[in-house]
Amino acid sequence: MREAAPAAEIAAPADWPKVGETLPRTDFGPFGPERLACYAKASGDDNPLHLDAAVAGAVGLAAPPIHGMLMMSCFEPALRRWRGDIVIAGLSGKFLRPIFVGAAVSVTGRVARASLAPQPELLLRLMAHGPNGDLAILAEATVRLSRAAPP
Amino acid sequence: MTAAETGGAARDAGAGASLEIAVRTDADRVAAFAAATCGTEPGETAAVPLTYPFCWMTLPAVRPTLERMIGAAGVLPIHEAQSFDYQRPLALDADYRIAFTFARTSGPERLTVTAAISTPRGERCATFETVLRLVPLAPAPGPADA
Q: What is d(CA A134, CA A104) in angstroms, rounded to the nearest whole number?
């Protein structure tokens, strides 16, 4: 969440999303070996599963998978591109299928619940897909209207 | 690791352990993380990315406890699930405390890491939970398998 002040009543803008509204698809990547190595260095997640084809093969994978957290990190910029007036209070996800090095990732979603009181809030169902529509992450985010948003 | 990202002795309790350390949202490191994830340019990072605190799980002060809780060599952690809940945002170039709890469960083998992030004054900022499935690596082929 991007603000610390206690909750106060704020009105939702006229275009506040409704249940069923979809988020535009946002594409990220492709995530080649150099990109995975860069993420491993920046995050400290140097699990060889993501960097070494032999290790990936030892657990039955055809190639190193993209870090789950690298894909999960795509949700926040996707949400910010969708709406600039929200703060993200929560994000949770399950990693369902590996997406292999070299692939791109697409983020999609829809509004599962929308409430206006005590403050405008949305529950979003989010998905990260790999090639051929493979579902890599099934996630939920709770977002609220930012009090810093213009009226 | 910055000078602040130190301290804290791990406490073991059966199939679990706990650890609390000081951390910092160093702007350069946050920018490098944002560039590696979102492709942002240096200087564009105005806030700490939501997923950034995950990085603190691999700090040198934490990694020995994490590796001990994962267990023997030949076991590979596979990320199964992850969640973040924020009560307040993390500021750039600010000091925090993070308290980790590690819990092993079996059937199948998993390690669940929970972390609570607070200001040095004890104000809660965020929590996260990481669930790792622990998968045995396939044994290397022996002479008879060659």
A: 11
Residue B33 covered by a domain: yes
If residue A75 lies in a helix (H) or strand (E), which one and from where to where? helix A75-82
Q: ipTM score of the complex? A: 0.90
Q: What is the pLDDT of residues A79-98, one digit of tens each?
A: 999 999 999 999 999 999 99
Chain B nearest-CA distance from A83, in A, is: 16
Looking up residue A141, the CATH number of its domain turns out to be: 3.10.129.10
Provide the 8-state DSSP code for A97.
Answer: S
Is residue A35 helix, strand or coil? helix
Split into its structural domains, chain B has a count of 1
Quick check: A78 contacting B, CB < 8 Å?
A: no
Residue-wise pLDDT for A8-30, tens only, equals: 578 899 999 999 999 999 999 99
Which pTM value belongs to this model?
Answer: 0.89
Closest CA of chain A from B44, distance in Å: 13
3-state secondary structure labels for all residues of B90-113? CCCCCEEEEEEEEEEECCCCEEEE
Alpha carbon B37 to its chain centroid, in Å, reads: 16
> Domain tally for chain A?
1
Beta carbon pairs, A and B, within 8 Å? 103
Q: Distance between terminal CA atoms of chain A?
A: 20
Q: List CB contacts of B80: < 8 A, sequence separation 6 or more.
A: A94, A95, B110, B131, B132, B133
Say whether pLDDT at A5 is over 70.
Answer: no
